[in-house]
Amino acid sequence: MSEATEPVPVEQLSYTEASRELDAIVSFFEQREVDVDVLVARLERATALIDELDRRLRRTRAQVEELVPRLDALAVDAAGTAGAGTAGAGTAGAGTGGEADE
Questions:
Q1: Taking the mean position of all CA atoms in its chain, how far away is CA 102?
Q2: What average pLDDT values come out for the chain (102 residues) when binned by 10 residues?
Q3: Which residues are CB-contacts of 37 (< 8 A; sequence separation ≥ 6)?
Q4: What are the domain boundaries of the chain?
Q5: How far apart are CA 23 and CA 6, in angstroms?
Q6: Which of 8, 37, 76, 88 is the 20 to 30 Å CA partner of 30?
Q7: What does each C-alpha distance from 13 to 18, 85, 87, 101 come to in angstroms?
Q8: Residues 74/75/77/81 CA torsion (nearest 10 deg)
Q9: CA distance 41 to 68
Q10: Are 49 and 80 in contact (CB under 8 A)?
């Protein structure tokens, strides 16, 4: 006999779904006394959810750490390109005036 409602594999859950299910398991434990067999099954599921959520957070952190320097470089390039036209005109005027004073 198989259970009618097999849990969805944790890898197939969205981060939000996995987090909500973990919260529901914690609430379940807080609100009642639990049969030992149910306890073990729920703890195993909670552990799988925690492992999956942790894996996703680590992967996301690695992606962010990779992307931030690239975005910073793009921002510096964009600022340098945009600033060169504006700052160049201002600097030329100031430089011309400064050279005349020297």
A1: 55
A2: 72 95 92 86 95 97 93 86 58 44 40
A3: none
A4: 10-93
A5: 19
A6: 8
A7: 6, 50, 51, 70
A8: 130
A9: 40
A10: no
Residue type, 55: R
Directed axis angle between helix 15-31 and helix 36-101, to 10°? 130
> Long-range CB contacts (< 8 A, 24+ apart) of 73-82?
none
Q: Measured between alpha carbons, how far is 64 from 66 in angstroms, rounded to an integer?
A: 5
Q: How far is the C-alpha of 64 from the C-alpha of 56, rounded, in Å?
A: 12
Cβ within 8 Å of residue 79, ≥6 positions away? none
For the whole model, what pTM was predicted? Answer: 0.63
Given a contact cutoff of 8 angstroms between Cβ atoms, the answer to whether 52 and 10 are in contact is: yes
Find all residues with CB under 8 Å of 4, minimum gap 6, and list them. Answer: none
Q: How far is the C-alpha of 60 from the C-alpha of 49, rounded, in Å?
A: 16
Tell me, what amino acid is at 39?
L
Residue type, 65: E
